[in-house]
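If your schedule permits, I should be very grateful for your opinion on a structural question. I have a record of one protein: its chain in single-letter code and its fold written as discrete structure tokens. Kindly check, if you would, that the fold set down in the tokens agrees with what the sequence suggests. I remain grateful for any guidance, and I place the record below:

***
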Amino acid sequence: MHQGQSETRVERAVFWGLLSLYGAQIWSLPFVPTQDGPAHLATAEALRFIGDSSHPWLADVLEVSSLPTPMWGMSLVLSGLVHVLSAALTEKILVTGYLLTFGLAIRYALGVVSPKARFLSVLALPFAPNYLFHMGFYSYCFSVVLLLAMLGWWHRRRGEGVSLGRLAGWGVLLWIAHPVTAVAGGMSLGLMALWNGWASSLERGLPALRAGVRNASWVALAFSPAALLVLWIRSLQGGATLHWFPMSVRWRVLAFSDVVGSFRPEELWVGFGITALPLFLTAFTLRRRWVEGLNPRGDDAFLMASLFCGALFFVAPNSATTPEGWTAGGFVSHRLSLLVPLLLLLWLGGQVWGRWIRATVVVAGAVFALMLMALHQPTYRRASTGFVDIAGASSALPPGSTFLWVDLAPYGPPGERISGKVRLFEHAGDRLSWTAEAVNLEANQYRSGWQFPLVFRPEVLAVPLPSISRGGVSGFETVAEELIDHLVVWGLSSERGTATVPWLGSLESEWHRTWISPRGWTQVYSRRGTPPP
């Protein structure tokens, strides 16, 4: 292979082979192991049946929100899919679609930068099944796909012949997908337009600079609706309190590519390798460019965008909480940290690489991807065991009934901590709401107010629901008797729940156990007098 050779069949085969393994790993599981995924599917199922006369109980407790928040986009897509597919199959197709489109988008963008750059897509693949993916942030994951496609589309034209309408369309699409990506993508694109104009002006003079300023102005105008919508959302948050990571944590998040680590500490060492290799290639390139004179080029706009997102990562808050204690936007730091290496890879794609470096990058990318798959597999397997254990409780929940999900083991089955970061079982009760056609009164999306398409009706929220903590449940004496039909308790370590969790014993006067899973991890308690399923 000579210097600057286009992608070889071996490099292409490695990429598609890894992507196929990602898909096979997902399809080998009974459920997709994510934290918020079940909640999104529950909302989609409820949206499907909210006006259906065969599911009148949904209208009794839920109502459709009139606010055009970004969560509508993914909810409508999922709701359309569950019309023709089961919820579990819908989630697998959605996740497979994300992994595939992520790979296609990064290859497209790299191919626009240079047809010789597609080999770097192998190094980008480990970023696909990342921490945000395992958190179940599907909207954000697809927003990254849209951002990569937009950057490739823009770079192909370098601002020439780009209409304001198309730019505004990209802005709206990114807004529908996720506000953080819309803001970071719009600002990065404006910076790239200015850089392209300035770099071109060194050869073509003032007209090129004016063209760059004009293109940046068009970007600002096109993305202004998205920016205004972001400000509008901020106003809805009222007196939300902003939270920042400590500076030492922010450095660690970037240095170890913390965004690729989801479950186990060992994953962060793979993340360190994923960070170190692009940084080495960057240092090598800058040294070579320095020797050659370090003349600015249009392709360097991607480097400027990567540095800009890195700077934004250090100054932006990580999350916000409302005075009521609800999250009004979170994981901003991790969302931004994912954009930094992807933009850097697009810049590296504009450089010329010899065959040994290309081979090293492809081998290293494949090793990183396989290592992460191997590290994820035990967690996937144990999580699936827990999900199957929980799913059995659907037989004890009559359609149309209500239940309260009590999560005593968010990080793994009783006695195990299979995940260090992702609370895989926090919203696992939402799986029951779409397998048993019951309403989970602990559903976070319905209780969070303005952020999601469906919310609890005001009269339901007016009833003080029980407070749930890892140590127990309190407040049942204040709950209207007709509101909660069942308790689904996850995380018990023996068949004698009252001995393991003493507070269950205090409920025996009004509640009795009606179902227990074969492992004893999941138990259903029904209010005395509740009709059996």
